[in-house]
Amino acid sequence: MTYQLPQCQPADAHHLAVGNVVITTLFDTTMQATLDLVTQIGPDEAAELHRLSRRASPPCITVNAYLVQTPDSRILIDAGLGANADANNGRARRALEQIGLSPSDIDLVLLTHLHPDHFGGLLDGDGQPVFPNAPHRIPGGEINHWQAGPPADADETAQRHFAGAQTFLEACHNQIERLDGHDAASGITRVELPGHTPDHSGYRIESAGETLLIWGDIVHLPQIQFPQPKACVAFDTDPYQAQRTRHAVMAQVAESGEPVAGHHIDFPGIGTVNQDGDGYRFQPHVWSASV
Question: pTM for the complete prediction?
């Protein structure tokens, strides 16, 4: 007898308790990348850091979404690429189904910023809203930036990003809520982390004396940007501000020991950050059978 070997992982969700709430990582996809995306450091340094990580080449960028489950609400923080991913991916919605939830069960969506790998899962293949009962709260500076349209010197990728963001904002206009302050939801504080985009934001979850910072896109290629925080990516709106933000937040959580979750850190994307020479090292959360 010839057995068919597994081709896909059996689960795309991971739970972690933070105080009295549960943070669920929803794996969405991986995006094929290239080291040509890395800026602000030389190509030889980027290649050597990637080689030392023993990862496959060319590199891939993980895409996660996060669900915050409390006794009273279910809050989605970003939604992955969704229908924009290839046919075998865009799995965050399936991950919700694996834990027994449907789109109508989501009470609120918080967005870190308006790039397609974060809002894509909020629209279906026909461009219609996926989560009918959920207001979509977006940092106000993000709305301003993307509605203003691309600058005259925008490259093709930037033009696509602006067009996609405007399409999303129009499709979901009845659900959009502007978030200008720091109070994102009960127990959730918006943390301003600009640079990747003008009002790129993270969200700090607090419950029963415990915290976790969901920091969005502080890193895209963790094998390069943790040991060398100067490294940026080509789609950072302001790479120098992105560098300053990355240095500051990594130093802060390395000193405090606060766990972080990243939308582009390898699934389940949760762990702690440690100082390591002039850079940092990510210590992944150890999987446990109990939440």
Answer: 0.96
